[in-house]
Amino acid sequence: MRQLTTEDLKILEVDLKNHFPQSLQVYGCIVQLNRTGQRADPVSVFVDLWPDYRVVLIKPEIRETGDLFKDLTVFSKNDVYLRDLLAQTDVIDWKMYICLAAELHHEKMLEFVAINRDVPMKKEAVCFKLVLREPSKCSQIDSLSLKLSSLNESHLALVNSTWKFGCEHSKVMIKNMILNFPSCCVLDEDDRPVSWILTYPSCALGMLYTVPEHRGKGYAKALVTIMSKRLHSQGYPVYCFIEEKNQLSYRLFTSLGFTEEPDYKASWFVFNDF
């Protein structure tokens, strides 16, 4: 495998657009990387061949235990290419905990790899991929009536405690998101966040949450709209992942113009115990 250079990554970003929507998650990671550099979220990007790559693998650098919580993200033009790479490469340490972000249709192939690697595997989550192509279609929001801000490190415990997958090990990932990637929140009269949304290293919008006593005020709709327009104006892809059972969020995002990519569902597969 070849590890890509800074210049290679610029070329890759352009080419990945030719493989939407399958490549969107890896594309988003490369976009963030090209704009923020390694200071934000240290990763290594590998391809099987260059420049005629067939598989892209984005691997987080493991510097502390919490880094294991970050995703190993892949895009492949063909199941066979990805299977062969996972079966043969020594880039991945299969003795460690791995959370692999990939398309759902890779599931059977990944089960085959797990059996041959003799490692346990489970499917952690399956999500709809919703994309906003025309942010101008979002409703106009009276943001002047809202007290808006970005999240900061003092809000880490609050965000972590309300996220579905939040735990001690997720703090490193969330801290990185707060410090380096776009976020937005609504503050109350005491400057405490009561509703917020973050951006993942893949550019996907996520961790949208409103504290119970402030629900029904349109905060979530306002934050999604504001962030969508902001990201689009800065050249970022605007999309999100919604878990299959989360119909409330599905309705919210689709009401704002996000559309589902019906042939492609995103999944997270876990290998080994944390």
What spatial order of strands do you see in the largest sheet? 1-2-3-4-5-12-6-11
Pairing-aware structural class of the strands and helices? Answer: alpha+beta
Give average pLDDT, whole number: 90
* Broad shape: globular
Please give the largest β-sheet: 8 strands, mixed
Task: Tell me what portion of residues adopts beta-strand conformation.
Answer: 25-35%
Model regions low in confidence, pLDDT < 50 over at least 5 residues: none
Radius of gyration: 19 Å
Distance between the termini: 27 Å
Oligomer: single chain
Number of strands: 12
Encode the helix/strand succession as letters: EHHEEEHEHEEHHEEEHEHE
DSSP summary: helix tally? 8
Helix amount: 25-40%
Core attributes:
8-stranded mixed sheet, alpha+beta, 26% strand, 8 helices, 274 residues, 12 strands, 4-stranded antiparallel sheet
Question: Summed up, what is this model?
Answer:
The chain has 274 residues and is of the alpha+beta class. The chain is built from eight helices and twelve strands.
